[in-house]
Inverse folding.
């Protein structure tokens, strides 16, 4: 199962996946998941490429907000496995 959501950063539609094992929509796309509910502007949902850009181009903000060690490790692991490079946009 999947649904189409709009990325709060690039404002493109992307596909968010349902995680059946955990019974919720993929937290990967949820900014508050990474920041432990700390706010960054009004951002709530990010597509994968914006998550990657966040880390690569707005590193200072990333380091300030994502300071939970286990979340950082999860993020690095996703990044290392290329999870943020998978295309999830509806329209290229
Ligand atoms: Zn985006």
């Amino acid at each position: 199962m999947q649904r189409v959501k709009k990325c709060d950063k690039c404002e493109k539609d992307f596909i968010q996946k349902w995680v059946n094992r955990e019974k919720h929509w993929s937290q990967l796309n949820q900014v508050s998941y990474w920041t432990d509910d700390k706010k960054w502007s009004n951002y709530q949902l990010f597509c994968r490429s914006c998550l990657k850009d966040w880390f690569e181009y707005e590193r200072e903000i990333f380091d300030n907000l994502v300071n939970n060690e286990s979340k950082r490790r999860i993020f690095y692991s996703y990044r290392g496995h290329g999870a943020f490079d998978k295309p999830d946009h509806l329209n290229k």
Observations:
- The chain has one domain: 2-85.
